[in-house]
Specification:
The protein is of the alpha+beta class. Helix content is 47%, strand content 16%.
């Protein structure tokens, strides 16, 4: 039998570059899909060449597979990237970028009121600290109801994005073809209804239980049936709660003070520059 020799390069394999807390605190992951360190963190490794190619491949980005593969390879404590709560996603991508390219992110933006472009750097460690500070409130009270919600998984988020993209593509096709006006209106109304259903189902899927009095309802069919027949204020309260929780885990735009030259050209005193977490751009900036 041939003896299998250990790889002499093994000691030079990737090592964890940082350990981070998850914004979700590890909640919402199905059993067996997450392994935390003793102090409740996950180890983050730098991307490999294969990861870098995948994260910049448009087709794989569209269906979410590249992001899932990179997360699983760079954060081995996450066993299934599809079940990652969406509130953890930006923190994980930021940590992977820090591990791969370093702490600073350089971005370009156009000065409002001018055609001038400027570059600025932001510290991703500070940004990551912002992302992990929030606490997701799972339940709230509206009238006589106590409603429990959970953040969408990356799989749910991707499915919604794909369906929305497809419906929007249909609208563009309707605009460009030789259909009669009545056919266009019919197609548009059908597509608008499907887009509305997508957004409403997105909210429904976030509801995990509703308690009234001593009774707690967790059956998905019963919950959906209630939400479809509930007064609109109940739906709006759920939507407001979900939006408020999502905002906690959203990076605030970076504030830039303009120069005297820029202000003389028509720029305001300060500019807010958003951080774009689109994977193809966010990681392309490090190459």
């Amino acid at each position: 039998m041939t003896e299998i020799k250990p790889n002499p390069l093994m000691k030079h394999f990737r090592q964890p570059k940082l350990y981070i807390d998850l914004p979700s605190k590890g909640l919402f992951y199905p059993q067996g899909t997450l392994e935390l360190t003793e102090d409740g963190k996950v180890a983050v490794y730098a991307m490999t060449a294969k990861d870098e190619i995948m994260i910049k491949t448009p087709d794989a980005l569209l269906n979410g597979q590249s992001t899932v593969s990179v997360i699983e390879n760079c954060v081995p404590g996450i066993k299934n990237g599809w079940v990652v709560p969406n509130i953890d996603l930006d923190a994980l991508l930021t940590a992977i970028r820090i591990a791969t390219y370093g702490e600073m992110l350089s971005m370009e933006f156009t000065i409002p009121g001018t055609t001038e472009e400027r570059a600025f750097e932001t510290n991703l460690v500070e940004l990551l600290d912002e992302l992990v500070q929030g606490e997701y409130e799972t339940s709230y009270t509206h009238n006589e109801f106590t409603i429990e919600t959970a953040p969408m998984t990356y799989k749910q988020f991707t499915d919604v994005a794909l369906k929305t993209f497809e419906e929007q593509r249909i609208i563009r096709i309707v605009d460009d073809n030789d259909m009669s006006e009545s056919e266009k209106i019919q197609k548009f109304n059908e597509t608008f209804k499907r887009l509305t259903d997508i957004n409403i189902n997105n909210v429904y899927n976030s509801v995990k239980s509703i308690k009234i009095g001593d009774q707690t309802v967790t059956d998905k069919q019963h919950l959906d049936e209630f939400l479809q027949n509930a007064p609109v204020d109940v739906y709006k309260s759920i939507l407001d709660h979900i939006d408020a929780q999502r905002t906690k885990f959203t990076v605030k735009p970076r504030k830039i003070i303009t120069s005297e030259e820029d202000r003389a050209a028509g720029a305001p005193d300060t500019i807010e520059v958003p951080i774009n977490f689109d994977a193809s751009n966010f990681f392309a900036l490090g190459s």
